Amino acid sequence: MSQEKFTYNFSNVVVLGGGISGVGAALLASDRGYEVFLSNRDELDSAFAKALQTQNIPYETGTHSIDRILKASLIVKSPGIPDTAPLIVQVTEAGIPVISEIEFAASHTAETIVAVTGSNGKTTTTSLLGHVFQVAELDYTMGGNIGKSFAQQLVEGPAEHRLLEVSSFQLDGILNFKPHIAVLLNVTPDHLDRYDYKFENYIDSKMRIAMNQDENDFLVYNADDEAITSAIEKNKPKSTLVPFSMTRELEYGASLSNNTIKVAIDQTPFTMPIEQLSLKGQHNTANAMAAATTAKLLKIRKETIRQSMQSFQGVEHRLEQVLKINKVQYINDSKATNVNATFYALDSMEHPTVWIVGGVDKGNDYSQLFGLVNKHVKAIVCLGTDNSKIVNAFSGCVDQMVETNSMEDAVRVAYKLADAGDNVLLSPACASFDLFKNYEDRGRQFKDAVRGL
User: ∠363-367-373 over CA atoms, to 5°?
Assistant: First the structure.
């Protein structure tokens, strides 16, 4: 599975894409004294443009100057640009290496990297680990797929530990990236439009997180996830395998016994009753297991881990309780951009629920939600430019289904459909790009609309 270390020619770096990762990569390239040029198809965010101007980094917007791009010795590609994009095909055929920003950044540090990936729960687990690191007073930064880019954080100064959330798109562009601890939470069908609609391609992408690890590194993984255990069997990573399981007790790793988490990886096991966790729900127990295991591998004190798990406040846009109006609880789960994330959300509903769903479909199979919709959902509010697939999937599950194409309308309709004691849940199961900039924009618009009721 491991590859030979690739040596880069950094003399002339071209960055494609001017978002958080692209601008971070450009700033790092400039900071290290390389010739750098950034090309972005759309207009740049004003703050990003100012950051580039301040460092005298040349850039273009609204076009890609192919002649200039083809002079690059190395191209750093933003994760949103697929490998199949004509420009990427052209530069690849020209023999220019194309890598991701996390790969570029990792080439410029020997600091300890802890990287978390998975189809669901990676932001919560990374944020929970960040809270543990903060309470433990470690010298660390947290970012990657959330917050600041890895490259931007290297520009800002050194740190002993780099805690990163990493996506499959970021992992697709690595050759040397080597986390000391890799955490693989789960793999369920997501982003299949980027992987030829083949689940195995997506699994292979996630497994790249362990591709360069050796026997001194650790892979913390979900032993209950058949896709992961099969991929580990197939790829045979060289790192020390540290499993966690919700379904069976493990002699080595983390498991659940009598509603108590037990992490047994050394002579002093960590234990904690799940009722003491600040985060509720089965999926969050699994996230807490992964985080506690990682913290133990880093030799963080048990009492510090326990204190952190009790005081963590959760993540914005992930089952975030917004307001209670007329005894109806409004819940923002905008970060649920795939079916599996929405499965967890619906499964945690304890009251009749008006469910707001929809957006850009990524090859979703909604059938796994039918049982939960029958059990918990009293009405569905569709929110998207094309709701036909959702309407077709769930029309037989609920009596009331309303189509909307703005957040304000969706919330107003949900308000009318909900009765005292109900929940209104935004858990879209889809990407946000049809009506919103991103899932954060979608979640904030939901909260603004709720506050405006």
Answer: 120
Q: How much is the pTM?
A: 0.83
CATH of domain 12-96: 3.40.50.720
- pLDDT at 120 > cutoff 90: no
Residue with tokens 């290290």: 32
Taking a C-beta distance cutoff of 8 angstroms, is the pair 139, 161 a contact? yes
DSSP 42-73: SPPPHHHHHHHHHTT--EEESS--HHHHTT-S
Banded pLDDT at 364 (limits 50, 70, 90): confident
Q: What is the CA radius of gyration of the chain?
A: 22
What are the extents of the domains in the chain? 12-96, 104-311, 320-451
Q: What order of strands is seen across the sheet that includes strand 260-264?
A: 140-144, 161-165, 112-117, 181-184, 218-222, 240-245, 253-257, 260-264, 270-273
Tokens linked to 395 = 């029309």
As a whole number of angstroms, the distance between CA 338 and CA 120 comes to 8
Give the domain 320-451 fold: Protein-Tyrosine Phosphatase; Chain A (3.90.190)
119 is in an annotated binding site: yes
Give Cβ neighbours of residue 446 (< 8 Å, ≥ 6 apart).
322, 330, 332, 334, 356, 407, 411, 426
Phi and psi (nearest 5°) for 214?
-120, -170
Q: Is 107 annotated as a binding residue?
A: no
The closest alpha carbon to 126, from 261, 315, 298, belongs to 315
- Give kind and range of the element (H or E) at residue 400: strand 400-404
Name the token pair of 93.
């055929």
- For 13, the 3-state DSSP assignment is strand
* 120 annotated as belonging to a binding site for a ligand: yes
Q: Where are the alpha helices (DSSP H) in 369-434?
A: 370-376, 388-394, 407-417
Backbone angles phi, psi at 2, to 5 degrees: -70, 150
Q: Does the domain at residues 104-311 carry the CATH identifier 1.10.510.10? A: no
CA distance 348 to 320: 12
**DSSP code, position 442:** H
DSSP track, 99-140: EEHHHHHHTT--SEEEEEE-SSSHHHHHHHHHHHHHHTT--E
The answer to the question of whether 121 is labelled as a binding residue is yes
Each residue's pLDDT tens digit, 148-186:
999 999 999 999 999 999 999 999 999 999 999 999 999
